[in-house]
Amino acid sequence: MVARIEVYSKVEDTRAKVLLKNLSKLVKKVWVVDVYTIVNKLNIKQLKLIANALTNPVSQTVNILVDKKSEQSFSLNKTSFKEKFKFAIEVGFLPGVTDNVSNTVKEIAEDLLKVKFKNEENVYTSQITFVDGTIDQDDAKEIGQNLANTLIQRIHIKNFENYKNDKGMGFTVPKVTLDKNIEVLEVDLEIPDEELLRIGEDGILGKDEKRHGPLALDLDYLKAIQGYFRKIKRKPTDVELETLAQTWSEHCKHTIFADPIDDIQEGIFKTYIKRATEKIRQKNAKKDICVSVFSDNSGAIEFNKDFLITHKVETHNTPSALDPFGGAVTGIVGVNRDTIGFGLGAKPIANTFGFCFASPFKETHLYRDEAMTQKMLSPKRILEGVVSGVNFGGNCSGIPTPQGFLFFDDRYGGKPLVFVGTVGLIPKKSGQKKAFKKKAENGDFIVMVGGKVGIDGIHGATFSSEALTKGSPVSAVQIGDPITQKKFSDAIVKEARDLNLFNSITDNGAGGLSSSVGEMAKQSNGCKVYLDKVPLKYPGLDPWQIWISESQERMTLAVPKKNWKIFSKLMLKRGVEATIIGEFISSGKCQVFYKNKLIVDLSLNFLHNGLPKKHLKTKLSKKEIPEIKFSQPKNLIDIFLKMLGRLNIAGFEFISSQYDHEVQANSLIKPLQGRGRVNGDATIIKPLLNLSEGVVLSQGIYPSYSDIDTYNMAAAAIDTAIRNAITVGVNPEKLALLDNFCWCSSNEAERLGQLKLAAKACYDFAISFKTPFISGKDSMFNDFKGFDKDGLPIKISIPPTLLISSIGIIDDVKKAISLDFKFPGDLIYLLGETFDELGGSEYLSFINHKGGSVPKVDANKNKKLYLKLYQAIEYGLIVSGQSIGRGGLIIALAKKAMGGMLGAEIYLNNLPGKQTRMDYILFSESQGRILVTINPKNKKKFENLMRSVSFKKIGKVRGDSLLIVKNNASSIETTTDEMLKMYKGTFKGF
Amino acid sequence: MKPKILVISGYGINCEEETKEAFDLSGGKSEIVHINDLINGIKKIENFQIIAFPGGFAYGDDTGAGNAFAQRVRNHLWEKIKKFIQKDKLIIGICNGFQVIANLGLIPALNFDYGNRQIALLHNESARYQNRWVDLKIENKSPWLNNLENFSAVVAHGEGKFFATEEVLKQMKIKGLVALRYVAGEICQYQNLPHNPNGALDGIAGITDETGRILGLMPHPERSMFFTQRPDWPYLKEKLNREKKIMPKYTKALEIFKNAIKYFN
């Protein structure tokens, strides 16, 4: 039987109201109706009970419709929608797409009626939007396109007459039907190279003559595999090839960072990133803060004597280009699992984000295919989808999201960057065990916990290792389910861990089981997996699909046999599905069975170390840096105000206020600060409510410098991430970094040359600042290859992007510093030196001028300054602080003024450093600079303390709202209100 | 003896730890108990003096915030809850917990008709999740709110717009069941924000049943009890410092939990 339960609002529905605002002016009225399509043998009494449970009688009414074709028929098929409308547009999911609400409805119904939904019985959700106005079928279609993403959703439109005649929308059941011929193929690799290559590029050929989808294996890798199977004298199965493709993917093995490059035999990662950390740790000796670096799902540093803090930042770019909402949800809940999967399970205590988009005010016309049928979403829709995806994932999981940034460049129009990070808290000890260590033991059960497996997310790992093209598989997109994850996260981190019930745990992310089990098998030296034991969402999956599916919200654990009973009972009590799918062994092999047939039999050594090394070569053509050739504009005040509204500077309160940053009660320095609610550059959380320590989080990113100089781009990002944290009061000796490289065209020598330079800067500046890297991730092919509005081929590559995240400890949170001016008469100091460093700056980008050098970082000088400032904060001398970053000195000043709703009088003569023009002084992005205010009575003490570093008193805080900035040559004047109008105007309406 | 507080968890509730902290700080002895352990009978409701339904995202807010969790409580624990109400005991529902007890019909329960849904918490006026601070004025004599006139606290929700029919609202007013209203107080003034964060009818932020012993509120006092949780604390710290005064450790929001403990002493 198929029944539809339709829930109508009988009071004003704000969802409809807000939707109406965003639709064309021709639409006069909108109604939103929630629909639950139920496929199960239920009688009318049962259906009514369910309908009742899904409706709030105070604000809603409900209607039940039953499909006449069903064996049972009720006289209920009346539409209850009495309003006059033009079109009814129903949007529901395509078959197989994760439908979170459906799971809840099933649970409600099962609990209420004491029935079970079995096999084909299911619930599907959809939404009808009724629209009225002077619109025609085409308009309705367009509205449908705006409501739905056709990669994951279906749209069904009826006009008023049809709706009335048909008595409603009809019954659609988006059931997954898969070809039932489950098979394991043997693949012949003794074939010509061209055919081998096709397997690599398009996938294994199925019996139905269809290819399974890209393996992203190139000829060298395929030859190595061919050689292995030649040696063991048999043909590989499709499952084995898929396993190798997943494990050897750029996404999993990070080959570009691992392979030899030019004369660097050990590769970029070991030479520049890991070695920096090793050196710092040696030097710091007893003061070493690192506890677990580069070996686990997150990096960990010491928080206090009993606890560690972990951090990990990921990207989820390609899926977010196709389905921004689902991609972003999956990204954020995925990186949460890098916390839950750290050691024996850390508790997520904060999320971070960073989004790089094209301007949402421009329309792009990009297509994935030549026939121009697969249009890319507009930058605005990508922005909106990604923003609400992280909202959904973070908020639902009960994890605060205080720290983040936005960066805009139109070269992100083909591939947006979605950085998501999670900070965790874990005790050093759990019972007698070290909670940050793990090891699957010979004989432990392999246990899968969480969601079931479907065909969603197949080839995610190999897919993100390639450019986005029309061949990119749509099944690679998944939607996260934060509640399923929250249930097992609580059960594991808050209960099972401290009962010492398991020996090891890891995330099922890219590559699915093949990757998680394959990785953990290294700990015990082998695994045996029975794929027919894996719980499936629906029947019909081939073994290779079960093995590599990236269906979300799953983790793999090693549970000692003796603990299984207690463990499984606990999971059952918490509503968490846990299944034994195999056993860790010590045979040195990865073996996978399906219905007693051995279908994977690979040596672990070959699986993990068999991939041939490639020798990467770089090239770096010397570029002449053109000089800046324009004279100082006259209208500096206009330029300044417009700069405040630039996408890269403007406030993004609409994000900060929709991301819960106060759950867990750990918020201390919040994302919006002061009276003016200005976005700060760093945030602080206090994870243990009774202790005085806090965790400082910040970020640094300068993609606009990459076109000129990636070495100094990386240096600036590092200096900024450190400086921002210093400004709010972090202890400089307890500060660590994370690197996230998002590069483009990494098969080109020139791009690799830029990469090597940036990585070298990471080494140099981490060492100079003594800030170790504790974790990192890279995404090397952020290119869009498709067609433009004329159907001509186009390639859009992102600017080489490096995100540096900083994480550190503030020993006493009561000493934390916020950005806002606090009292009239307070003295304003500029710390650090200012130079004519305008290359790649927001100012030059605004006036559309290319030229000049990017800022250089003098780490030793800056470090000295930062230590002095730390002392001043410790002595309680600093009243407010703002790091000077994008947009320069005047933007930092404006933030302080808007934050405090107080003006200032500023004189910019004879500043430390060397400057030639007022506009350069205002907008230079010279690194290592901070603005602070102090109580005038502390002037002597402060100046005396700072005497060995560069600083200058530049003015004082006014009691009114006037900001006056002068030097000998010119002066500008404005008010806090005028500044706020620009700063907040850009994203008004978002 | 310290009063015992049952802090219910599970299925996406996520404020149980800070809620426990708030009661323990106030002199209570609280225990976080998964709802399934109550259903299985591993833990017993009757052994507690106070029940707290904490904030969170039970069942991801699917089918209406608080609805699915309320269904689970109704299906398995209704008789026990009813008995609990009849005794001189306290219940609080915060944010998602408010949505749960509203869907359960524990408040306003006009004419002591427990179990009937009489009010709704609708999607915010912005149709979007909103996290900010609000100022609140105390409007009735619930034991939870003794000796308090106002306080400021965090709100963080997507569905918090209070709604009731005219008739229900009239009855609630006559009986004095409106407990908290959003007002323009010191935080709104400091941050220049409108006082009503979600379009709630009559600015209603919290209500009680007719006994006053059951309180439901959208704001989160348990996230707002330390002085350094306030958005203006860095400013106030400096101000107090210049006045040679010491920064307090707690805010007024903690009084709510203290009141509950005092009720049993």
Q: Any overview of this molecule?
A:
The complex is a heterodimer of chains A (990) and B (265). By secondary structure, chain A is α+β, with helices and mostly antiparallel strands. Among the domains of chain A are: 2-165, Phosphoribosylformylglycinamidine synthase subunit PurS (Mth169, Chain: A), CATH 3.30.1280; 644-736 and 807-985, PurM-like C-terminal domain (Phosphoribosyl-aminoimidazole Synthetase, Chain A, domain 2). Chain A is built from 31 helices and 40 strands. The longest helix of chain A is centred in the C-terminal third of the chain and has 21 residues, at 749-769. Chain B is globular. Chain B has 265 residues and is of the alpha/beta class. Chain B has helices spanning 16-25, 35-39, 67-86, 96-104, 166-174, 186-191, 233-242, 255-263, and strands at residues 4-9, 29-34, 50-53, 90-94, 120-122, 130-138, 150-157, 161-163, 178-183, 204-208, 214-217. In chain B, helix 3 packs across helix 4. Chain B has one domain (4-263): 3-Layer(aba) Sandwich (Rossmann fold). Classes of the chains: A alpha+beta (990), B alpha/beta (265). The interface between A and B is large, with 70 and 72 residues.
- Tally of contiguous helical segments of chain B: 8
Q: Report the end-to-end length of chain B measured between terminal Cα atoms.
A: 8 Å
Summarize the largest interface: chains and residue counts.
A-B, 70 and 72 residues
Please state the overall shape of chain B, judged from the principal axes of the Cα atoms: globular
CATH class call of one domain in chain A: Alpha Beta
Element order of chain B: H for helix, E for strand: EHEHEHEHEEEEHEHEEHH
**CATH architecture tag of one domain in chain A:** Alpha-Beta Complex
CATH class of chain B: Alpha Beta
Assembly type of the shown chains? heterodimer
- Uncertain segments of chain B of ≥5 residues (pLDDT<50)? none
Count of beta strands of chain A? 40
Radius of gyration of chain A (Å): 29 Å
- Number of strand segments of chain B: 11
Strand order of the largest sheet of chain A: 16-18-15-19-17-20-21
Query: Which class of secondary structure composition applies to the elements of chain A?
Result: alpha+beta
- Share of residues in helices of chain B: 25-40%
